[in-house]
Amino acid sequence: MPCGTSTKSQAKEALESDSGKRKYAQRKIDVETVFGRMKRNFGVRRVHVRGEVGVRNDLGLLLMSMNLTKLSGILRKGITQIG
Questions:
Q1: Distance CA 41, CA 37 (A)
Q2: Which of 5, 21, 42, 72 is 20 to 30 Å apart from 48, CA to CA?
């Protein structure tokens, strides 16, 4: 880090660059939709366990249930398209 340059100003410069703008726009598509689904469809606003292992397990189960829900919808669509 150059002398006299704060981390905040470096982050601002990186986000304002063309590649930073593209990455930030992609983040809205990739990441924020997952958290939106967690909040809206599953009612998850916070984890209710302590410790890294507990949080990993809790989120792992949640993400697994989200994937199974998505798979269920895909399979239902596939069955109705076949029949």
A1: 5
A2: 72
Residue 61 CA to residue 30 CA, distance in Å, equals: 20
Which run of H or of E encompasses 62?
helix 52-82
Distance CA 46, CA 80 (A): 36
Measure the CA dihedral 31/58/47/62, to 10°: 50
Orientation of helix 32-40 relative to helix 52-82, angle to 10°: 90
pTM of the model: 0.56
Kindly report the CA angle at 70 between 66 and 74, in degrees rounded to 5? Answer: 165
pLDDT tens per residue, range 26-57: 877 777 778 888 888 888 888 888 999 999 99
Mean pLDDT of all residues in 1-20: 81
Residue 3 is classified by DSSP as T
